[in-house]
Design goal:
By secondary structure, the chain is an alpha/beta fold. It has two domains: about 170 residues, Rossmann fold; about 100 residues, 3-Layer(aba) Sandwich (Rossmann fold), CATH 3.40.50. The chain contains nine helices and ten strands. It is globular.
Length: about 300
């Protein structure tokens, strides 16, 4: 077979499965005719939904001539974007510097390093992601590399407008009534919302945010000064506050009862989806399973299974 007929790794990003939950929704949702679906973004090659914007940001910047292979890229990240960018940089021939708070899981750090990225760890108790974002900007100003800036880069939500949204619409045959997503950079919820609402303005977009005092990896409520500039509040119809303990418990349930081992932000999105489901009937509710649970094993998240 001619080598042109084989896909490259970037061509395996996207087209992830959308699966129906069988046990967690319970008989009440079945009686009301509700269906709850999880989009398994952990099936992407670097293991998360962030593979989509990482590929989009690098490929679009390359196409515009903003960067070229051999250049150094810099990004502040809480984990999944960093892994995805490290993979994409490796396959496109870039050097990658990732700046991240030092309280993130060892699996995430190891994954980034495996792809050849240089890591800079910042004190989580001295500014966290906000400090990491400021440091990235300073490094770019000093000529140390190019910041892609997932928080302000329109190529982030564009990836979801072009891929995630159309996939959800096609996979549900246009029946989706609610889309639920954790909110971090907000790229996923922005891009998917724009696409789904262009197909049907009645689709409800629901954002999962951390409750006061909760720390949930991948789910943020930004201070006003650091609110991602890609975020448009008019594209989110409803917010659900998620308690950290509820998201962690749901991550264990999702693995033990559905066979879907996912991260805590995905579980938080499911908590929000179930909250929405309590108020509706005959609804098709899809949520993003942001990543795989194996990158949280060292945190002890799954050490104590629910119901045992």
């Amino acid at each position: 077979m001619n080598s042109q007929n084989y896909p490259t790794i970037e061509e395996t990003v996207g087209n992830t499965p959308l699966v129906r939950l069988q046990r967690i929704p319970g008989p009440g949702n079945e009686a009301r005719g509700n269906v709850i679906l999880g989009k398994l973004e952990g099936n992407n090659p670097a293991g998360s939904v962030k593979d989509r914007p990482a590929l989009s940001m690098i490929m679009c910047a390359e196409a515009r001539g903003d960067i070229k292979p051999g250049d150094t890229l810099i990004e502040a990240t809480s984990g999944n974007t960093g892994i995805a960018l490290a993979m994409t940089a490796a396959m496109r021939g870039y050097k990658m510097i990732l700046i991240m708070p030092d309280n993130l899981s060892t699996e995430r750090r190891a994954s980034m390093a495996a792809y050849g990225a240089k890591l800079i760890l910042t004190p989580a108790n001295q500014g966290g992601m906000e400090y990491a974002r400021d440091l990235a900007s300073k490094m770019q100003a000093n000529g140390e590399g190019k910041v892609l800036d997932q928080f302000a880069n329109p190529d982030n939500p564009l990836a979801h407008f072009k891929t995630t949204g159309p996939e959800l619409w096609s996979q549900t045959r246009g029946r989706i009534t609610h889309f639920v997503s954790a909110m971090g950079t907000t790229g996923t919820i922005m891009g998917v919302s724009r696409y789904l609402k262009s197909q049907s303005p009645t689709v409800r977009i629901v954002g999962a945010q951390p409750a006061e005092g909760s720390q949930i990896p991948g789910i943020r409520k930004w201070p006003e000064a650091y609110l991602p500039s890609i975020y448009d509040p008019s594209l989110v119809d409803q917010f659900v506050s998620i308690e950290q303990k509820d998201a962690e418990a749901m991550a264990r349930r999702l693995a033990a009862e559905e066979g879907i081992c996912a991260g805590v932000s995905a579980a938080g999105a499911l908590v929000a989806a179930l909250s929405v489901a309590e108020t509706v009937s005959h609804a098709t509710i899809a949520f993003i399973v942001c990543d795989r649970g194996d990158r949280y094993l060292s945190t002890g998240l799954f050490d104590e299974q629910s119901g045992q």
